[in-house]
Amino acid sequence: MYDCNSARRYPASLMALALAVTATGGARAYDVNDKLTIGGLLAGAFQCQQVSGFADSENLCRGAMAFQPELFYNPTEQDQFFVKFGFAAGNGLDENSPFVLAPWSADLEDGVKDINGRDRSYLLEAWYAHTFKIAADNTIQLTGGIIDPAFYVNENAYANSEYTQFMNEAFVNARNAFLPAYDGGGVLVWKFRDWTFSGIGMNVGENDDGNNYNYYAAEADYRLTTALGEGNYRVMYSGTSRAFLDPQGEQREKRAGWVLSFDQAFGPVVGVFLRMGWQSDDALIDLQSEYSGGFNFKGSAWGRAADNIGIAFAYLEGPNWSPAVEGAIVEPPDPQVVDGTLEAPAEAAQVLARTNVFEAYYRFAFNDYLALSADVQYMKDRYREGDDVDGWVFGLRAVAEF
């Protein structure tokens, strides 16, 4: 049975608030004047998981909500200041899910506090950008401040938003692309005709090992327009400085990876996306490669032009090293004596062999501002040793954009 009695009540109140906000209409962004614009979103989700195969897993329901106001200030046509805040209540299933992948890849309560160990909470982005217009189809934009690299690289027309598209993190960004968000850095974007070239450099407060590190990424994006529709074809490389522990927990290693991301429209109704990614396994990682793809169907096919259906599948592989080889990280340590008491060793870490993910959603748009999505996910994690886990996640998501 689902443990619904202990589920948090936030999403119910959020959905009611979203309905109230949008019942009288409005706009996705409010223009204070010709230079200042205020926008954002209010989102809530309620998800239930039904899990089997893992001894400590529970069948339960959890909810969470997120509020992200943002402000644009354009003193000139070439200059822009941007500030974005993130507030959240609850962590959804993240605290109770036995799966490797998060069933809702949103910025929830824990994610908006003490961001990257910087002792900064709720301020997600704050940057200034200047655009150099060389010609009508040739521009260069420079951005500096607190940035989110996912805004510039690893985009996809059909699988890139946890608020309006797929919820599972496998379909929001490439899981192994490694995109550290909301820290100081700079971006260069050059748009020339149908090409876009993006370069990013960041310094990130700390990783899970407590180490400060540098991050960089580069992407080339080609837009293809045919009689069938528009498509985008991207190749991305990302890497870090030597700041991540190796599988033995003894040395620091770099992280590096490649991602291919494609999306293509096939007529006015159907869209297709494909992502493939690989990263090195010198550092301690949980997933090394990813292959995902899916379809988008616009509601114009059944008289609901603003609605859409998304269907996707992903296959992800764990690192190449095995528990037998990496005993120092997988086997539990010897018992320790603390204050005269013999403490039991920590549970052995598991090495993931592979993960399969399926997700489908229907997004029902009430108007231009409010939409409700019904979502279903199936995940199966297989480990080289230990218990495998598989199960279903059913969810509802309400999002009001203003």
From TrEMBL:
InterPro entries hit by this protein: Carb-sel_porin_OprB, OprB_sf
Keyword Nucleotide-binding belongs to the record: no
Protein species of origin: Candidatus Thiodictyon syntrophicum
Family: Belongs to the OprB family.
Single GO MF descriptor: porin activity
The protein, known as: Uncharacterized protein
Keywords tagged on the record: Signal
Signal peptide region: 1-29
Pfam families: OprB (PF04966)
